[in-house]
Amino acid sequence: MATYDEDAQIETLRRWWDDNWKALVAGLVIGLAGIFGWQMWHRHQVAHQLQAATLYQDMTQAMTGKKDADVKAIVERLKKDFDNTPYAAQAELKLAQTDVAYGRFDSAADHLQWVVDHADDDGIRAIARLRLAAVQWQLGKDDDALKLLQQPPKTYIALYGELRGDILMDRKKTTEARSAYQQALAALPADSIDRGALQHKLDNLAGVAAGQS
After folding, report:
1. Do 66-139 and 149-213 fold alike per CATH?
2. What per-residue string of b and e applies to 52-77 under the rule 16 or more CB within 10 Å gives b?
3. Nearest Cα to 132, choosing from 150, 148, 156, 154?
């Protein structure tokens, strides 16, 4: 009886294998292809990032050597072929920083606008917006600057609010400036070293208001 049961089980398994072996093999092949495909994609991504990092390093060295033509060529390649990496945006931020140092605010604005429009990373894009607002203020485009500072990312509420307050104060809008500074101060942790500078600006505003009354 036991032999009969074993023979029946073997026959059942044989029939099941005959009916399903193609699907099993196909599933195994697809599974292996997926694993190898993911590994190839991952290796490609790593190589892509390393190439972009190398180009960025080459750009910084070219900047140190004041090789402007090389810098421009490298940055254009980063923007064209590696715009999906952080290095293209970082290169544009670095160029903007250099332009600001030399008072080339129009050029700095162009670099920063590219980052705002193309960067994949929210943090990098938020920094670019903040710096672009500061540059637009230097160019006398206060309205454009204030628009950029609307709806600040949560992590940057204090920085956006402080710059907004500075611009509004420069425009003699003391009530709006005070509100911006207060919002910025409220967004800072209690132990932040930046609270003192913001509080100083608020105290100065109180003195301005007293002088105007």
Report:
1. no
2. beebbebbeebbeeeeeeebeebbeb
3. 148
pLDDT at 41 exceeding the cut of 50: no
For 5, 9, 180, the CA distances from 12, given in Å and listed in that order, are: 10, 5, 78
- According to DSSP, residue 120 is labeled S
pLDDT tens, residue by residue, 110-127:
999 999 999 988 999 999
Closest CA to 201 of 179, 181, 183, 184: 181
CATH tag, 149-213: 1.20.58
User: Residue 115 carries which side chain, given as an amino acid letter?
Assistant: V
Helix-helix angle 68-81:2-64, to 10 degrees: 160
For tokens 């059942």, the residue is 12
Q: How many residues comprise the chain?
A: 213
CATH number of 66-139: 1.25.40
Least confident of 48-57, 119-128, 137-146, 168-177: 48-57
pTM: 0.74
Domains of the chain by residue range: 66-139, 149-213
pLDDT tens, residue by residue, 82-110: 888 888 999 999 999 999 999 999 999 99
With a CB cutoff of 8 Å and minimum separation 6, the contacts of 48 are: 82, 85
Distance in angstroms (rounded) separating the CA atoms of residues 110 and 95:
10
